[in-house]
Amino acid sequence: MTDRTDTVTTNGQTGAPLWLLAELTYRCPLQCSYCSNPLDFAAVKEELDTAEWIDTLTQARAMGAVQLGFSGGEPLVRRDLETLVAEARRLGFYSNLITSGLGLDESRIEALREAGLDHIQISLQASDPDVAAAVAGSRKAYGKKLAMARAVKAAGYPMVLNVVLHRHNIDQLDQIIALCDELGADAVELANCQMYGWAQLNREGLLPSREQLEVAEATTARWRERLAERDRDMRLLFVVPDYYNDRPKACMGGWGSIFMTVAPDGAVLPCHSARMLPMRFPTVRERPLREIWYQSEAFNRYRGDAWMLEPCRSCDERHRDVGGCRCQAYLLTGDPAATDPVCDLSPDHHLVEAARREAERDTRSAGELTPRNAHESRVFCRS
Ligand code: SF4
Ligand code: FES
After folding, report:
1. Residue 7 covered by a domain
2. For the chain, how many structural domains are there in total?
3. Residue 271 Cα, ligand 2 centroid: separation in angstroms?
């Protein structure tokens, strides 16, 4: 297919990308069964080098990007992280490190602070070391994460924790929030697992039942009240899994609208999951970032609303949710242009309802999980 050469979408002028997610590497010491990296991550060998990343950051900033996330895999695996952070600061980005905490120590936190890193977010798997080990595939990780959460705060950063919730840990939410409180967290994202990458492969073992979800929401509400009574400023953000909504989210604020991911090998994507879609995404080694964002067929394909199928095409809500998530539509139906089956107007909504029904089975049999690993790494498609 040939590329469009203009910068105009069916909805008018394409705006600048405001967010850049720099996935520096797919390498990671952990093996989380809900990892959002692609199933064939091990096939990506040639990471961008330091000079290529600096060039990419420079191009993105010149296009207007202001928010920068350093992510992975585990971005601390890259020994040039401090160099990239310093460059991000020089360019004027607000930078955030999204990390497991493994590979961090006090001296590295200090080096990152001196380089100008603005924000650090550490992930926790559970409050129970055994559950944490089972989910992350590491016994040592739990203690290390707690120590690094404290060290980040001691270095003057707010302590921002991210806990991915799923069938195996959601019943311990009370203890998880208590642990975050005890650690002195300033903000906690209680993010129910969304079904992409390895999480989609492990969906049966991860999707909580509706009852589990309702109890967790009530627990969060109770904790909010308790924290307010104590005048304790610890923000709790509870993110419901898409599968329990009846309308989809406007994923990434719309395809190619404000968000851009650069994968470890330089592939430029409209979201972190898109590389498993049946389309080709150009890399920064092949074309300038500006050209990819404004002119590539991949970025223009789902901009505006001309691509939409029914029922989205004639739906009054299409500009609010842009038909939902292209990756979710593909993973569930095999067609990335389909209405996101999360929507109860979608002819495929029964697929989401079936997954919810399946999750109603006895929660004591939580289900087997396949840990993220290079051996089983493969191209994955449900269709
Ligand atoms: Fe949104 Fe499409 Fe559902 Fe309408 S039919 S609410 S546009 S996903
Ligand atoms: Fe890719 Fe939603 S995650 S479009």
Report:
1. no
2. 1
3. 5
